[in-house]
């Protein structure tokens, strides 16, 4: 759908503060952009600072800001569908901190094990991602604890968006449009800020069964949607982040919804080109054939946000 409230002049400028921080991290390097031909390019986030997803950009910056303002923090707490939690656990270990990650009941064992493998205490919640968010917020309010949220209105939720600006600051070329997975909307908000600053259209891609941004744009305010579950675990979100919403409302050009089966086909097509991209990361490629005429552009950048974070599911999809 076309965003009826699109007003890029109302979008805040992207933060440049995190870029210098990220450049100083051991192992930092810009992730590659692959030319697929026909005016389609892919920003490949399958290997970012030692992790198979982009999330570490927002988390590392939010942790740095948290420790600057609250040096007494010893334990980081987060709710996650998988990638965010692993990034929090990974950065916590690097900074000599403990981590406790709350995961929804339908999170896959492979993602739970990956988080535990980073040294975190994993808590599986008998409920949804939103239930995990609530419990993480309660835990993060304890003395010596800090919640590293990428949803809500907290300072860390804003810092996460600022950290994601590095992904777009790395772009050397200009594109007519960027297709970005949405989820709670933090990455999409960073994309929208870049888009408003450069005159680039930004199109959000969501699962058809968790299209919370599409519903919110149609309503003119954040609304929650029912989420029966999707293989795109990182996008299985019922509502957008409060921190991201003002930027999304003004800066997203439009949205496209895709199905799990369309994403499987996209994963296969990307694998045939030598790119191992997971379910959420393949969503923008899946959106290409279903873009409305008004949203099509000549040079389109797809943000492939993750590698195969569910190895078994990936193998089955591309077999």
How are the SSEs ordered, and which strands pair?
Layout: H1 17-23, E1 33-37, E2 40-44, H2 56-69, E3 75-79, H3 83-94, E4 98-104, H4 109-117, E5 121-125, H5 129-140, E6 145-147, H6 155-169, E7 177-181, H7 186-198, E8 201-207, H8 212-219, H9 245-251, E9 254-258, H10 260-272, H11 279-287, E10 300-304, H12 311-318
Parallel strand pairs: 2-10, 3-4, 3-6, 4-5, 7-8, 7-10, 8-9
Antiparallel strand pairs: 1-2
Helix pairs in contact: 1-6, 2-3, 2-6, 3-4, 6-7, 7-9, 10-11
Protein name: Pyridoxal-phosphate dependent enzyme
Cofactor: pyridoxal 5'-phosphate
Domain Tryptophan synthase beta chain-like PALP: 27-305
Question: How would you sum up this structure in a few lines?
Answer:
With 319 residues, the protein is an alpha/beta fold. It has helices spanning 17-23, 56-69, 83-94, 109-117, 129-140, 155-169, 186-198, 212-219, 245-251, 260-272, 279-287, 311-318; strands spanning 33-37, 40-44, 75-79, 98-104, 121-125, 145-147, 177-181, 201-207, 254-258, 300-304.
């Amino acid at each position: 759908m076309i965003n009826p409230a699109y007003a890029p002049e109302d979008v805040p400028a992207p933060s440049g503060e995190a870029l210098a921080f990220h450049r100083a991290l051991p192992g930092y390097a810009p992730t590659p952009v692959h030319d697929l031909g026909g005016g389609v390019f892919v920003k490949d986030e399958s290997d970012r600072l030692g992790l198979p997803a982009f999330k570490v950009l927002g988390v590392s910056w939010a942790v740095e800001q948290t420790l600057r303002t609250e040096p007494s923090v010893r334990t980081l707490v987060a709710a996650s569908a998988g990638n965010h939690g692993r990034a929090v656990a990974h950065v916590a270990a690097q900074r000599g901190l403990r981590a406790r990650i709350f995961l929804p009941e339908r999170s896959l064992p492979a993602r739970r094990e990956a988080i535990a493998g980073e040294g975190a205490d994993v808590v599986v919640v008998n409920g949804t991602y939103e239930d995990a968010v609530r419990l993480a917020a309660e835990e993060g309010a304890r003395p010596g604890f800090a919640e590293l949220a990428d949803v809500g209105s907290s300072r860390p939720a804003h810092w996460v968006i600022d950290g994601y600006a590095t992904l777009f600051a790395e772009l050397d070329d200009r594109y007519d449009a960027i297709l970005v997975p949405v989820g709670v909307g933090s990455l999409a908000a960073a994309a929208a800020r870049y888009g408003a600053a450069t005159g680039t259209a930004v199109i959000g891609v969501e699962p058809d069964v968790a299209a919370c941004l599409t519903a919110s744009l149609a309503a003119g305010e954040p609304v929650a949607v029912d989420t029966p579950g999707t293989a795109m675990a990182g996008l299985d979100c019922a509502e957008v982040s409060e921190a991201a919403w003002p930027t999304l409302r003004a800066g997203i050009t439009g949205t496209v919804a895709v199905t799990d089966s369309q994403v499987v086909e996209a994963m296969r097509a990307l694998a045939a080109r030598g790119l191992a991209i997971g379910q959420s990361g393949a969503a923008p490629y899946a959106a290409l054939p279903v873009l409305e005429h008004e949203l099509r552009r000549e040079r389109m950048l797809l943000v492939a946000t993750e590698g195969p974070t569910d190895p078994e599911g990936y193998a089955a999809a591309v077999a």
